[in-house]
## 1
Amino acid sequence: MSRLERATAFVSKPRIRNLWTLIVIVFFLAFVITPTLFVLTYAFTNWDLIQTEVIQDPEMMSQIWTAIANSFEIAAIVTLIDILVGLPMAWILVRKKFRGKELLDTLIDMPLAVPTAALGFSAAIFWGITPADLTNPLGLKIVSSPFLLIILLHIIFSYPYMVRSLSAILEQIDQTFETAGQTLGASKLTAVRTITLPLFRAGLVTGIILCFARSLSETGGTVAALATVANTDFNTAPTLIDSLKSTPALAFTSIVLIILALVLLVVVAIVVKKLHIPFRKVWPRPEKILSRGLAPRLKDATSVLFLVFIVLIPSFFVFTFVFTSSPSTTTDWSQFGQSLVNSFLIAGVVTVIDLAMGIPLALYIAKNRSKWLPETLDILVNVPLIVPTVALGFSLKLFWTGGTPVSGPFAIFLVMLAHIAFTYPLMVRNVTGAVEEIDPTYEETARTLGAKPIQGFKRVLFPMIKASILAGAIMAFTRSLGETGATRAVSTTVLTAPNYIVNLIKLENDYYAAALACIILIIISYALMLALRYITRRRKGVS
Amino acid sequence: MRNGEYLCLLGPTGAGKTTILRIISGLTIPDQGNVIFDGISMNKIEPEDRRAVMLSQSYALFPQLTVADNILFGPDIRQYDQKVKQRTLAEMLDLVRLTHRPDAYPSELSGGMMQRTALARALASGASVLLLDEPLRALDARLRISLRHELRSLAKSMGITTIHVTHDQDEALVMADRIAVIREGRVVQVGTPGDVFDNPASPFVANFVGQSNFFIGTVEEKSESTSVRGELGHVVMARPCDHKLGEKVVVGVKVGNTEVHKEGEGYFDGTVERILFEGRNIFLDVDVSDVGRFSAKIPSWRLGRLAVGDKVKIKWSADKAIVFSMPLGGLEKELRVE
C-alpha cells in the first residue's frame, strides 16, 4: 500500500472519524463560542467593580445608555429602509429580464468588498459638512446630523445583504401561484401583495437579522465617518466601546449589547414567523391602476436611482478626493504596506482555519439532524453572527488575556482568533445549507461502490458543494479583510489596513493619505474578488 | 440466499424493504441480529468493504461525472490497472448498450439510459451482491415492463447475487427466482413465484400476491377436500387441510379462480354490482347479501353476457381454494396493507 492509501485507510477508521468530529466540536466551543460569550461571566465575577465604577457613575451610565439607544435606533431604521427599497430591487433581479442585468447584479455586491472604514470616510466626505482643512468641492455637504449620517452609511453596506436574502427567497417562490391569482381575476399588484409577499417571511427573517446585526456591529466605518466630520460627542455602542478605557465599563457595555442583541433578534425571528401580513382586503380599482403604466416603472426607476445615489456614489466618492486635494508629505507609506501585508495574512490564515474546521462541523450538523447535539450546535453557530463584533473582540481578549493590553505578534494572533470567531459561522452556514440540499444517496451509493468516507466526500460530495465552499471562503476572507471593530477591541494599535485608515483619520487627520489608502484597499479587494469569480466560473465551465 | 440467485423482496410501502437493503449494505446499523456473507459476520465491516452495491431508486448517478467516469468510479477507487479499467468499461458499455454515449453527462440521458448506466456502474465495481431498491420505479409503464427481462438477464449473466426490492407483484412474479414476501419488517413467506402465488402461507400473502376472495367459517367435513360452513349456512369447498373439525378458519381463493355463472350450482347467490373492463379481462364485483362482496376476473369475451344487476352464482373448484387458520387480529387487520 502506498503512503496515501495507508493514510486514507487510517482516517477512515470509525474511531478516527469520531475523534476528528470531537476535535472540531471542541474547537468550536473553545475558540468560537466560549470566547464570544465569555464577557457575560464578568458580571458574576466582578459585579462589585461594575457597581462602583459604572453603575454608580451617572455620567458614565448616561453615556452608555445613549450610545446603546443610538445603535438600536439606527439599526432599526436602517433595516426598515433596507426592506422597503430592497424588495423592489430583489424583484427586478429575479423576475425581470433585461440587458445589463448581470452588471446590476455585480453592482449590488460592490459595497461588500469595500472595507467599511473606507466606506465610512467616503460617505462622510460625500454627505457630511466637513472641517475646513478637508475641503472637497464635489461633496454635497448637506448632512449635519451625525445620526442621519450614520444611517446613510449603514444603509450602504447592509443593503446588499437585504437584497440578497430577499432575492434568494423570491427565486424559490413559484411564480405559478401569482399567475394562478391573476387568472382568477386579481390585478398584478393584488396578486403579489396577497399571495407572494406572505411567502417572504423566511427571507425577511434572514435579511432582518443580517442587516440589524451588521448595523449594530459596525465600528470602522462609523468611527471613520464621525472622525471625518469632526464630531466627538456622538457615539454608537461600538464607537463608545472603541473609545472607553476602563475594563468594567467596557464589560458592562458589551454585556448589555450582547444580551439586548440576542433577545431582540430572537423576538424578531419569532414575531416575523408568527406574523400574518394581515392585508386580506383588496381594492380592485386602485390596485389595477397601480399595476399598469407609470406606477411600476416609477417603482423600478426609484429602486435603481436609490442604488446609484444612496449606495454606489457615496461608496466610491473617495476616488474624487485625490484629484481635488493636495498630497501630504508626512505620510509613512511603509506602515501602510505593512498593514496591507498583515490584513491579507490575517484574512488568509482565518479563511484556511475556517475551511479546515468549518467544513467538518457543517458536515456533522447536516448529516445528523434530529439529534440534540448537532441541533444545538446549529443554533449556537449563529450566535457570533448576532453578537456585535466589537463586543466579541473585547470578550475574546478578556478570555485569553484577562483584559491586559496586548501588542506585537501576539496581538495579531489574537486578532486572528477574533476574526475566526465571527467568520466561522459564515463558512459553517454556507456549507451546511449546501450539504442539506444534496441527496444523501449519492454518498451512500459511493460507499457501497467501495469508496471510503473520505474518498466519497472528495469525489462525490465535494464537487457538488464546491461553489458554496468557495462562497463561504470569499465571505470569510472579505469580512476579515474589512473588519475594524473586533480588531480595535483587541488592540487599537494592531496594524491592519482598516485600522491604519481609521487611525490616519482619527489621530493624524491625514485625510489625503487615508483617501489614497482607501482607494488602494478598494482596488486590491476588487481585483481579488474578480479573480475569485473568474476561478469559480471557469471551474463551473469545466465540470 | 443462494449464490447467484435473483431474489425479489416484495411488500407494501413501509414494510421495511429498503431498511433491509440498507442493513445488508452496511449503511444502517441493525439494533440486533447478524448479516452473514459466506459464513462471515459483516456487522463490523464498513459498507465499502462488503462488496454489496446498492442501486437506489433515483440511481444517484454522480452529476459531475460522465457516463464512462460514473461506470469507472468503483474501479478507480479500487485502483485497478489502467488496462483492466479500459476493458471493464468497454465490456460494460457494450453490455448496457451505451457504447455511443460514454461522454454524456447524466443530465443528458433518458430515464432508461440512466438506469442502465447505474446498473453498469454497480456491476463494474466488482461487487458480489447487487442490491436494487425499486430499480424500475422512476420509469414509465411501458419501459418498465420491457426492462424487467433485460435487468434480470444482465444480473444472471454476471452470476451476481441479487436482491430486488419492489412493491409491484407482477414485477416480482416475472423476475424472481424466489420471492420473499415481507410485512411489518418480517418475512412471511419465501418461495418460487409459482409457490407464493398458488400456495400462499397466509391470507395476507394470498391477497397481496394476486388478489383473493375470503370466506370465514368452521371446518365441517374433511376428506379429499375440506368443506367449510359459514355462519349463515353457506358451504364452500377447499383443499385438504390439517385443521380440526369445528375449528374457525378462513378460506381464500384468487379472484382469477373465482367462477361466476348465471345458471347451475353455486356456493353463493349474488347480484353483479360493478363491471370494470381491463382489456384482456373484465373485473367483476358481485354482492352476496349478508356475506359480502366477491370479485372475479373473467375473460373479456363474456362482457356482453353479463350486466350490472344480473343475478349470478359464485363457485370455485375445491383444489383452487386454501384453508387458513383464523388470523389472531381478525381478517381485516391481516389484510391491511399499511
Note: The mean pLDDT of chain B is 87.
## 2
Amino acid sequence: MMNIRNSIVLSAVATVLVATTGCVNNPDSSGLEYMPDMYRSPAVEAYVDYGQDPYQVGEEVASSQRMVQSARKPVAGTIAFHPEAMDFVMPYPYPNTVEGYEAAGLALASPLTQIGQAEIEAGQEIYTLMCTQCHGEEGKGNGALSRNGHIQGIPSYSDKLKDLPEGKMYHTLTYGKGLMGSHASQLSQKDRWLVIEYIKVLQQGGEMPEFDENGNVVKSASTEAGDAMAMNN
Amino acid sequence: MIADLGFKATKSFLTACLVLFAVQGTAGIWDDGNIEEGQALFNANCASCHKVTNEVLAAPGLAGIADRWGASEELLVQWIQNPQGAAESGDSYIKSLVSRYVPTYGWMTAQAVSAEDVKNIMAYVQNPPDAAPVADSGSDCITVDELPIEEANNDSGVWFVMLLVLFLIIAMAAAGVNRSLTNASREKDGGALLEDLPYGQRVKMWAWENRVAVSLIGVFIVAYGAVLGYQGLMRVGVVEGYKPNQPIQFIHSVHVCENEVDCKYCHHSAYESKHAGIPSTNVCMNCHKAVKKGRRYGETEIGKIYEAIGFDATSGTYVDGEGKNGYASPQDTYDGDPIRWNKVHNLPDHVFFSHQQHVVVGGLQCQNCHGDVETYTVGRVAKVEDINQLVDKYPGLIELSKPTLTMGWCIECHNKAEIDLASSGYYEEIHHRLKDHLRGNEELRMYMEDDKITVKELGGWECAKCHY
C-alpha cells in the first residue's frame, strides 16, 4: 500500500516539475515584458505600429490602427531642402521612356563639382555593397547571382558598356532597365553619382587613377587615353 | 550606254549575291549551328532579357522562334544587330513585333554578333540542352536542404497543466477506491469502519501519517519555486531567441551567403537612419524579377512578393505599368496588400537607438549585435553566447556577456568599445579640446590609463545619451 502511495506522490511531483520547467516557449512571443505599455507605445514609430492602448480604446480601434502604414511618403510635389546640395534633391526631369534614356545619355551630366580620391572611393564602397552581387567585383558581370545561374548575360563595364555615358547610367540607376530594377529607393541622388564615378573607373579596366596628396586625380586611364589622342591629333 | 551596262551588270551581280546569301541563310540560320557556341553567345548577349523557354524575363521567351518568325532570315540577323534599322525595312512581321513588344519592354539593345553567331544562337535556342545542375561554388554556405523548416510552434504549458489535473483526479479517485475497499474488508472482518470525516480532514490525516515525506517534498517544492521564480523574473524583458513567424518563409542564408547580397543592400537605411530598414517590395524585385522560383518553396513564397507589388510573372510585367508615370515605382501606384513583416528586434519606446551612429561612426559589423544572420532562415534575436563564438569568423567582434538587447548588454559594450579618435572630425575636435584644456588634459590622461578611450569615457554611460 505504501509503495503505491509513494509512487503516486512521486509521479505527482514529477508532473509539477515538468509542468513548471517546460515553460511556455512560443517563438511568436517575445517573452515577458516589464510594463508592456513602455515597450509598445501608441506613438508612431517606423515598422512598429501598436496603435493606442487596446484596454482604453478597444481592440477593434487598436487593431485597425496597427494596420495603417506608419512610414509615410512626403507630400506630393515637395522636395527636400539642402541649401548646400540642391543639385542632389531636385526631381529627375527625364521620363522613364526609351526617348528619356537616349536624351539623358546626351544631355545629363554629373553635378559633382569635385571628383577626387574621396568621391571615387566612396563610389567604390557603394559599388561593393550594392552592385557586386550581379555585376561582380570587377564589373565584368560575373557576380554571385550570375555565377549561380540566376541572372545571366550581365554586360561587362569594360566591354559592352565601355562607352556608356554617365547620363544613361544615372537613368538606369533611377528607373532600372531590362532586368535591373530601379535603385532610386536605395541610393540617394548623390550616391548614384558617386557610384557612377567608380563605374567609370571600371569602364577603363578597373585600375584606380593616381591621386596626389590632396586626393585629386593626377592621372587616370581615361585622361591618358585623352592625352594620347590629343598627341595623335 | 557603257555606264548603263556597267550599272546593270553590277546590279545583277548584287542580286545574285543576295540570292546566294539568302540560299545560304535558309540552310544556315535554323540548322547546323553549334549548340555549345550558341549557348555561350546566348548567355553573354541575350540571357539578360530572353529565356529559351516560354518564360518572359525582360523580353519574350524564345521557345518556338523558328516556327514563329514571320520575316526573312536576313531580317532576323538585322533585327538582332540593329533592331531600329530592321524596323525601318517596313516588313509587316517586324512592325507587328515593334508595336507589340517595344511599348512594354523597350527596344532591344543592338548586339554585336555576326550572322554566323546568330546561326549558333538559334541552334541553341531551338535545342537547349537540359540545364546542368548548378556547380557547387565551393562555398561553405549552409545549403537550403540543411536548414530547418520553420513551423508554427504553438507549444504551451496547457498540456502539462491538463496532465496535472488529470493526475490529481486519478489520485483522488484512487484514494476513494482505496477507502471503500478498506471499509469493505473491515466490514467483512467485523472491524471498526473508518471515520466518516470531511475530505480536508482526511487529507490532513494522510499528510500527518506521511509527515516526513510530505515535509521533504514541501521544502523541495518551495525551494524549486523560488529558483524558478527568480529565473522567471530575470527573463523579464529578455528577448534572446525571439523568432516570430513571418509572412514569407524568407531564407537569409540563400540571399546573404550563397548569392552574396550584402546585408546593407536590403537593409540599406542602416547607413542613414536609426532603423536598418525592412526592404520595400521593389528591392525584392531587383532580383526576383528574374528569380521566380525558390529551391525550397518553389513559387509560393516568391509569389507573395508578386502579389504585393502587382507583378505578372508570366508576362514579366507589372500590372500597373513599369512605374512609367514619372518617378514613381510600381508599388507607388499599385494598390496591393503590403507584406506585413513582424518586427524582431524591438527596443522599448523609451530607448533611443540609431543604426547610423553604430554602423557609420562606430564602424560596428552587423554580426556584432545580430549574430551570424547568414546562417539563418527568418530573422531572430541572436543569443549572446552564439555571437561570442563568431570572434574567429569576424575579427574585431566585441565579446559580451549580458543577454542581447538588454540595457546591461548595451552599456557593457559601451564600456568595452574603443573609439578611434582619428576616425572623424568630431572626435578629433574633442581630442583637441581635451588636450588644450588644463582639466581636460588631466581627464584625458585618466581615460588613457588603459591606453584606449572607450565610448563610456566620452559620455556613453550618460542616461540622456539613450533615454530622453
Note: The beta strands of chain B are 311-312, 317-318.
